[in-house]
Design goal:
By secondary structure, the chain is α/β, with parallel strands linked by helices. It contains 19 helices and nine strands.
Length: about 525
Amino acid sequence: MPANFLHSESLPAPPRIPRVLAIAGSDPSGGAGIQADLKSIAANGGYGMAAITALTAQNTQGVRAVHVPPAAFLTAQLDAISDDIGIDAVKIGMLGDAAVIDAVRGWLEKVRPAVVVLDPVMVATSGDRLLQESAEAALQALLPLADLITPNLAELAILLKEPVAADWAEALAQGKRLAALTGTTVLVKGGHLQGGQPDAADDDAAGCPDALVNTGGLLGQETVVVPGERIATRNSHGTGCSLSSAMATVQARVGDWEAALREVKPWLLGALRKASVLDVGTGNGPVHHFHHLQQLQDGQQLTDGQCRPAGHGPAAGEFAAALRAGATGDLEAIYALDFVRGLADGSLPEHEFAYYLAQDAIYLNGYSRVLARAAAIAPTEAEQLFWARSAQTCLEVESELHRSWLSTRPTDSTLGPVTKSYVDHLLAASVSGSYGVLVAAALPCFWLYAEVGSTLHREFLAGGAPGEHPYADWLRTYADEDFAAATRQAIAYTDTAARRASESEREAMALAFRQSSRYEVDFFDAPRLYA
């Protein structure tokens, strides 16, 4: 087997730091616009880039003047970035006039970024108008190109040409109408409601709620409401800019709007709660984007109810990268096994392969129960659906392939000692009460299996004479892109769980992953010992 067998490049890469482009106006006071966007992106673990649409003269007391550079220069900025740099998400803020909006629309249609969050900046918190009325029609045409629209209540009313919502129920109704009009998801924000809604029939309407609305049924639901605390502060300058930028950043990392909102909202509440620490200006001051760093400097610990953005615990992808580094020795041990070498070149005795498949079928039955447990306790519906689908795949797809092969060959289907130990380990993780520990324990069966499998498939293709290979049909299954995509998603969800976890829970996650990785080695070696 070639030496490079031990250095496969097929392993799905750890989630990269999201590269997020903010397209918005500049605020020289640093509280809103591009300045708030870049702080928000960094605070939530992204790499921020900026294309300036407008220059403002403003401070915490209000906007004094707005200058909109030629739209052609904005196009030049956008092209310069996208011609050179991969863009994982785009946040769009203040656009100024119709020519600027048309420039952004043309660029979006050409580049087609994966994530687009549009904050239709029309009216500042101070009440100042930031978009020319003549440009409203152009903005309406831009809305369907967004994946998420984040208007404040005044902007929501302007977009619908309706009065501003007086209560949460009407705000939700307006959000549904805008979602139907644009065909995209709308984030309805309760921050501008006067004093919360204590008399509302729905408890979610109390305090300061936000809701994701999608008439197509977001994750199987039309509306997902995330309640929140109302923070009494005059320092809310740039809140909308910060929220939309954070949503773009976290969405690029986790791939789920509900999970993104549930991570971003506690961070933003902390930024509002600690805003007075900054002591900036005499009017409506900015939020404290890096409040979590101040807490670390002060020796404070975040509670379980607070988010853990970059700066507290691992940054995005850091935990996954550490797991990958820790698995290197186990992967090398797997590649050195006689079973794996024989499977790659076709020399593996058939009775060993039959034993492996029989044990794998037994294992998958137990593994499916573990994945079903992950689905039951996952924090978001997207994760619930992912783990549930994975459990179903174990039973209906992979196990069927095993049964088809085994049905034509006699083999011992007795539960083997390694299989029993591995499944017992996973079941113990599933009753630990920790979602993070459970998915970390389940991850090697995705990650190491994908790594070894895709390497075996490449070696099989490179070996020639595929028709003469006794395990050709089996090795071809490793080329399944759906499984590779599922592996990448499992890695991302595990990494996100680690970012939410306490330090002690992350240690338990790492231990569970290492133990499962070791069991993967033993599982591949078991046919030599027990077949």
